[in-house]
Amino acid sequence: MQSCEPSGDSADDPLSCGLRRRGQPRVVVIGAGLAGLAAARALLEQGFTDVTVLEASRHIGGRVQSVRLGHATFELGATWIHGSHGNPIYHLAEANGLLEETTDGERSVGRISLYSKNGVACYLTNRGRRIPKDVVEEFSDLYNEVYNLTQEFFRHGKPVNAESQNSVGVFTREKVRNRIRDDPDDTEATKRLKLAMIQQYLKVESCESSSHSIDEVSLSAFGEWTEIPGAHHIIPSGFMRVVELLAEGIPPHVIQLGKPVRCIHWDQASARPRGPEIQPCGEGDHNHDTGEGGQSGESPQQGRWDEDEQWPVVVECEDCEVIPADHVIVTVSLGVLKRQYTSFFRPCLPTEKVAAIHRLGIGTTDKIFLEFEEPFWGPECNSLQFVWEDEAESCTLTYPPELWYRKICGFDVLYPPERYGHVLSGWICGEEALVMEKCDDEAVAEICTEMLRQFTGNPNIPKPRRILRSSWGSNPYFRGSYSYTQVGSSGADVEKLAKPLPYTESSKTAHGSSTKQQPGHLFSSKCPEQSLDPSRGSMKPMQVLFSGEATHRKYYSTTHGALLSGQREAARLIEMYRDLFQQGP
C-alpha cells in the first residue's frame, strides 16, 4: 500500500494520498435540476460510484415543473425545446417518442412569441378596440427589423453609442419611435397606436429575457446568445418527462430530496471542519435522514469519513448533517447565488466570481393559466395582446405595486383545445411579477378577468373556473426564472461564474488580494480568504465546480444550456481521473 506520510513531492501531486487509498473520489452534486441530473448521470456512466445528489425541494426537475390537471399537462416552468439540430434535449425527447403528439401549433420554425403560433394575434387596447391587422403587421415588420440590429453589436463588433446606454430596450425604443415619427404615410392616430405598441412588444421581450425590463439587458452582449437551428417544440406529455428520462440512469439512493444545503466549506486543511465555522446542532433541532449517511442514533456530524482521512470539501446541510467530499458540483440558480453567496461558501468566493454574480442578471417570469367553461375568443385568435394607449410616450416598464397588472403583456390561447380545454396563458415579469405572487388566487383571477373585459370590450366575460400560476421569484430555492446578460456584464462574466475553485496558480494572486479590491460590504468579516500557505502544498484541484443555465456562455437561459453545463463539469472530473488512473498505483 502506498504510504500516506508527507513526501517531498507532495506539492506536485494534485490529489491527496487519502484519495488514492480510497480509490474512488466522492462527488456531491447540489441540485437535481437538469444540470445536476446530467452531471450525476455522466459521472455514473463513466464508473464513478460515490456520487450523491442533494436536492432542497421534495421533487426533482428544478425549474421544470409540469402540472397535470385533468387530461392536460401545464408547464409552470420550462415550456419549449429551443431548436432541434444538435440540441440534446430534442434528441432525448425524439428518441423516446415524446414528440409524437406534438401538433403543428406546438412546433415553430421562426422566432417564437412565448407560447402559441396557431391563428392570429389580436392586439387590443385598453379602450376596448382591436388594432387593425395591417397596422399590426406594419409595426411587427418594423420592430423585427430593429430587433435584428440589436444582434449586430456583438456579432460584428459594432460600437455602442452613448445614447443607447448599452441597453437593448433603450436602443430599440428610440429606433422604433424615430422611424414611426418619421413615416410620412401614417396618420397621427396610427402613429399613436404604433408608439403604444412599442411598450407591449418590450414587455414581451422582457418576459422572454426574464429581466425586470428589457432596458436592463446589455446591448453589446445581446447577440452572443446563440439560437440552435431547427424548429422549437412543446412536449405534450410534459417537459418533466425529459427530467424523468435523465433520472432513469441514476439509482434512487443517489438522490436525496428535501436536503437543502447551508454552506460549502472548501479548501479544508484537515479531516474536520475548521474552527467554529460549522456550529454544532442541538439535540432534536434537525430531521436527520440516516439513509447511507450514518446509522440511527449517530450524530449528524459523524459517519461520513474516517478520522485519518482528509477531505478538501465539506458540505453542511440545513439538517446539520455534514458530508465530506473530494468535489462538489454547484447547480443552484444565479438568484440563489446572489442572495446567499456570502454565507454559502467558506472561505469566501474570489473577487472576480463575486463581481460576476453581481453583474449578471436574473429576473422573474411568471405564467398565469386561466381555464374557462367556454371560449369568449374567436377560433382564429391565438392570443390577446394588451396595448395601453396612454403608454405611447412612456420610457419605463416599471409600475407602482398597485398597478402591477399593467406588466401583463397578454394571454396566449393554448392549442389544441381538445387537449387543454379553453385555457389562456398570461405572462408577467419583473418586480410586478413578485407583487402578483403575493396576491391570492381569487384576487389575481378577479384582476385578470377585469382586464380581459376592458381590452375586449366585452363586460360579460365570466370569471375563470380555475387558475394556476407560477411563483419563481419568491421560491427560496430559485429566486428567479433564468439569467440574462445585464447592462455592464458580458459573456466573460458567465465564464468567470463557471470557473472551478480553487483557481489555478496564475489566478491565485488576484484571489489573495480580493479584500483590497472589493468594497467591504461584499464580504463578511467572519469569512476568511482562501489560504495560500505554501507549507500546505498544492491545493486539491476542482474542489467546487459550477453548472446551471447561467454558466453557459452561448445557451444561458435554456434547458439545453443547463444540461450541457452539467455534462461539461462532469467531463472535467472524468478527464481528471482518467489521467490519474492511467498512471497506475
From TrEMBL:
InterPro entries found in the cross-reference section: Amino_oxidase, FAD/NAD-bd_sf, Flavin_monoamine_oxidase
Record field: compositional bias (Polar residues): 504-518
Domain Amine oxidase positions: 34-268, 308-574
UniProt entry tagged with the keyword Flavoprotein: yes
Cofactor(s) this protein requires: FAD
Keywords recorded for this protein, A-Z: FAD, Flavoprotein
Annotated segments matching region Disordered: 274-307, 504-540
Pfam families for this protein: Amino_oxidase (PF01593)
Cited Gene3D superfamilies: 3.90.660.10, FAD/NAD(P)-binding domain (3.50.50.60)
Keyword Flavoprotein attributed: yes
Protein name: Spermine oxidase isoform X1
Record organism: Microtus ochrogaster
